[in-house]
Amino acid sequence: MVSPSHVRILSPAWRYALIGALVSLPVLPIINWLPNSEATIGGGIMIVGALIAGSIAAIRSTEPSAAGLRAGFLGGIVGMLTIIVTDGMTAAWPLSRVVFWVLAGGVILCIAPIFGRGCGRIGGWVTNTVVTRWKTSANVS
Q: Do 48 and 25 meet the contact criterion of CB atoms below 8 Å apart?
């Protein structure tokens, strides 16, 4: 019989993407305090969450771009759900508007992972750069 502690439901990339998405949520109000800033929940998960997911993945020796891609996908889903809940439930829409939002939602769900992948790679690169500089300065002294 397999021990429950050894059974993993999610792959490491999905786990790091979920962690990055959840950790990015408290960061969003801080970003919104900056002047001329209007960060949305989906955009914050897509960018900040992917940066965090990429850095965690780099520390854990997993591919940062895979974790960032998944975090970007999660950000796209949250962004689409936000639009559906806030604007979609207000009134009856004509067919042309429904078709537009279905196509726009598809585009968002295709582009958000690309931004997430890039931010995940940046997060992994920053983490690798900082960690290697810490290791080299520790070896010098």
A: no
